[in-house]
Amino acid sequence: MASYEVEHDVANEPQVAPGSRPRRPDLSTFFNSLSQVETSGTPDRAHNNANALPTPPDLEAVFRNLRDAFLVMQRDGGGNNLLLETMVNALDSDMDRLPKEVRGVSDEWLADRKDLVKKEKAPLPPKELDEEEEEWDEMYA
């Protein structure tokens, strides 16, 4: 039985023409994730909430996409990739130091706000139990 390569007339290794440039990584995913975490807006598009912060998973996605692009360039580039290796290691260490959650405001800050309406909770009316509920309460009290 012939192998897949022979049956479909494809080479086992991808053929690269000598002297051709290495493949460039697709950075569209990186730029898309970068636009999602940008909070300043652009001249043609204002940001919805200037006080909003990007979420930690979105920030991590930006770092990961750029790291993956560097790894593709490192793999396909050949030669000395010390610069790319240094950049990948720097991105890895920066990803480890990203915040794990977005900090909110403290309860003290909310209590000091004068413009927030503070309502007292109304007490619940006493609940009248039917016979079956009374039996359960007595049984498990």
Can you walk me through this structure?
The protein is mainly α. 48% of the residues lie in helices and 0% in strands. The chain contains six helices and no strands. Helix 2 packs antiparallel against helix 3. The longest helix is centred in the middle third of the chain and has 22 residues. It is elongated and about 85 Å long. The chain starts with a helix and ends with a helix. The mean pLDDT is 79.
Please state the average pLDDT score: 79
Determine the strand fraction and express it as a percent band. under 5%
Largest sheet: none
Shape: elongated
Question: Which characteristics define this entry?
Answer:
elongated, 141 residues, mainly alpha, single chain, 6 helices
Short synopsis of the structure:
The protein is mainly alpha-helical and 141 residues long. Helices cover 48% and strands 0% of the residues.
Annotate the secondary structure layout:
Elements: H1 4-8, H2 28-37, H3 56-77, H4 82-96, H5 107-112, H6 131-139
Helix pairs in contact: 2-3, 3-4
